[in-house]
Each structure stands twice: as structure tokens, then as C-alpha cells.
């Protein structure tokens, strides 16, 4: 495969070390005003650190590339396939040849891979670790390419299926792997078939998608192959130093092997390993169910379909699909584009996301569910870095606490609230995005879940401030346009915000009714009709109010938009228990 290198982009990354000092200074001017998020609670934000025709020599350039991204809030990086591939230094890596050669052995006309040597890779991984960034290995399980010799397969004929694999010979040894080691060769018996044709006595295996994709299709029905790949997975995590895997074309690989491999690698380390499937299928939830491993996530291709529609300017912003809006929302890895969906010349004929792309990134970066991935081509080649930096920072410092979709979303505007962390002042946000290019500004009366709080638009698209009332409501404006139609309203630093508390009660009050909180303080209506709360998943009703100190309270049921008419039974609750059990009644 012929690779075209963009030397200007490569030069830009090599200059980034010089620019880093200026960037750090700029960030430092306001870093002290940003919320201090405990390290264990910082949101995971992934960066796909490559695209199809970019970054030869990436391992040497990676520390300088990663440093400013870490400053903004990137916490993990999906790296390109690091194993030796069929075309050596000309391969981007998906034509994998020797899993155990990470740029260490002279094969396929080179010792280093396209991205550098094994030593450079290890140095890059060490630098990422120092920056607090986890690295994910792009593993190509489906096939092998670049065999060293042909074989005469009985009942089939000649095929390129004999692999010599110097890296495997060096690292996959009986001394190193004990019960996981087996004495066998990578020859035709380790494959199911090629050119969509089975070899005699073989079957494709239990795959969720069509079984043959390309190259020599690896036979994961064979026990010895399974064991070697388990050893390799342990090696990548425990010896090489990666923290997870992006699993290429995995729906074409035997599902039982995938489940067993994931569970084994997780079992073999104390780390919490990240696994994400590239399952390019219509029913991604079905694929996750088929694999049935609690450790596996999946890229949300269905959500990207929504962004394609958004790009057309015809999306109804009230309704969103995708894995992230399903019962598997906790296992979604969201993205706008990647090296396959956005490639020069669009060889797959993919529908493109061109317009409203910043709005799409705001959607994936600021909502409660899904781990978002930022794509390098968007960041550098397409010049989106300035806007993406602000959105990545907003996720890093403000996008915390329960998420609430605005009930008044329209065909043109989608709004979403993060309530913030009670124990970290300054967190939380109100996000609004436009799906129309009307050239007007609209405001939306929304519950920020933060009473008496002054907000400003972190993106700078709308100027001025907004201050919420005692119940957390205010009018939040948005430019209804493509060019500036995304706003992220966050608590203004330097403005003393009153302490607040959130009352919660779990109760199904039935269709058309709401739960109202009432109590002994003005914030709770002095035992009048009460303050209407907000429904959240699990029939949990929430109300955030300025902390009144010592008080008593209970709930009332009433029609939505009205007041509480029917009292909760039993004794009053107090400030010592903010999410008590329901006492009964109504």
C-alpha cells in the first residue's frame, strides 16, 4: 500500500515543543480559577493520535504532540497499529505480519515500523505515562498478511500461508510463557481460508458479522492460537506498557475467542484495562450482548449516523439515537470521525460530517455517558484545534455530576445540563447546540440545578453572564447558527457562589404528575405547595437549593407544572438525610 506523507503536518508537530511553553503560559493565566477535580474523578477523554496518511516517525514526535493535549484534558490516546506489517515502513499497520515485532527485528525490509523503533515506542509510552495519558494498542486480530513462503494445501492448492516471524521466535518461548506456550508454526493450519474460500476441514467460526474480510483469516477455533494470543495480550500490557486495546474489525472475529481473550487479559493484570470494539454493524448492542464481557465497550457508529444527519442541516434535535442513548450507554465510545470515515478521497464512500462538526463534538464531550474520542485529522489538518481545545477543557473541568436533558428541546436546538459535583465548587454546565443556520439568537428558560449562580459561556460564542434564581432557573442564550451555534455555560470564577444541597426522593408518581419538595425554610416554600423537582432515571426526583442550614422537609404529589397537593405520610425528614426512603402515602 502506497502512503502519501504530508510534510507540513509533520513539521508542525515537530515544532510543537517550542509552542508548548507559550501554550502552558497561556493556560496558566487562568488555571488557578478552574475547579480542582480529584485525580480519580477526571473524565477520560481519548485522542486518536493518527489518521490514514499522517505521522511517519510518530513515536519520536509523540511526547511533543501529547504535552499540550494533556494540558487541555486528554487522558488517553489511541495509537496506530504498532506491530510489523506486510509492507514494512510503508504500512500504516493494518496489514499485520508479526504481532511480536514492534520495530525490533529486521523483517519486511526494515527494523523500525512506519512509526519508529521498539525503543522509540517504549520512550513514547514512558512520556505519555508521565503526562497522565494512557495508551491504547490498535490490535488487528482478524487476519495476517505478508507470508514468507507458499504452501501446498491438501485439497486446495498453493497459498501464501508460511510465516517465519522473528519477533515471535524471540518473545513467544516456553521459558517465558509456561502453560500458554505451544510448539507450533504459523502455517496454513493456523488459518481458516483466504479470498473468501475455506481451506479443507476448516470452518469460519462463530462470528457476528460476515466471517471473511481480507488476508489470511486467522483460525481462532485452534486452541494453540488462542493461547498464544493470550500470552501476547499479557505481554502488551505487563511488559510493553499499554493500558488498553482498540480492536479492529472485531465483529469478523470469532465471538467466543473475543470474550475469552478479553476476560483473560483483564484477569492477568491488576490494571483496569480498556477494551473498545470496532464493530461496524447495525446492531452494536446486539454485538456487545453476543460477546457478553463486562469489560468490552464499542464505538458508537450509530451515533455518528446522527451526526451525518446533523451535517445536512435537517436533523430534529429533540431525538437522538446511538449506543450512548441505549441501555448500553455506559459502554459507548463516541466519536465524530476516524481514519476510516474521514480519509482523503473517501475510498469507502462514507457519508461525511462536514457541517455542524463543533456541535457534534460538544454533544459527545459534555454529556454524562460515553467516552469521547477526538480525531487528529479534525484537530490539526482541518484546523479545529482552537474550538476543540475549549470543549476538551470544558469536559476536563466542568462536565461532572448527573446529566439532565432539557425538556424544551426543539427541532433546531438541543440543550443539556450537568448538575456538577457537590464537593467540588465551580463544576457543572449548561450546554446548548444548534442544528440550524438561522443567524439569530434564542434563549431557553432552563434549570441549571445550581441556584443563585452566575454563568458565562466558556466557548466565547455568546458574551455576558447569566445568573440563576433561587431554584436554579435562568434564560440561557445560544446563537442559532452553524458557525457559532454551540455554547457551554459554566460557573463564573471569582464570583462567590452560595453553598447548595440537592434533595432526592425515589418515587414513581405516575404520568402527568410531579414530585414537589416542601419544608420549613423559604427555599422550600415554608410548607406551602412546594417546589417542583426534576425527574431523573430510576424515578429519582431531584431539587437543588441554596443550603438553608437546619431544616425539615418532606414531599408532596401534584400535577406537573402546578403545585404539590397530596402530602407524603410519616415523620418529616431533615438535613441529615438528603435521599431518605419514601414514607408512604399518595
TrEMBL record:
Keyword match Heme: no
GO molecular function, one term: cation binding
UniProt signal peptide: 1-31
CBM20 domain boundaries: 491-586
Pfam families noted in UniProt: Alpha-amy_C_pro, Alpha-amylase, CBM_20
Enzymatic reactions: Endohydrolysis of (1->4)-alpha-D-glucosidic linkages in polysaccharides containing three or more (1->4)-alpha-linked D-glucose units
Amino acid composition bias (Polar residues), ranges on this chain: 565-580
Keywords: Carbohydrate metabolism, Glycosidase, Hydrolase, Signal
EC class: hydrolase
Matching SMART domains: Aamy
GO terms (BP aspect): carbohydrate metabolic process
Region described as Disordered: spans on this chain: 548-586
Keyword Protein biosynthesis listed: no
E.C. code: 3.2.1.1
Family designation: Belongs to the glycosyl hydrolase 13 family.
Annotated protein name in UniProt: Alpha-amylase
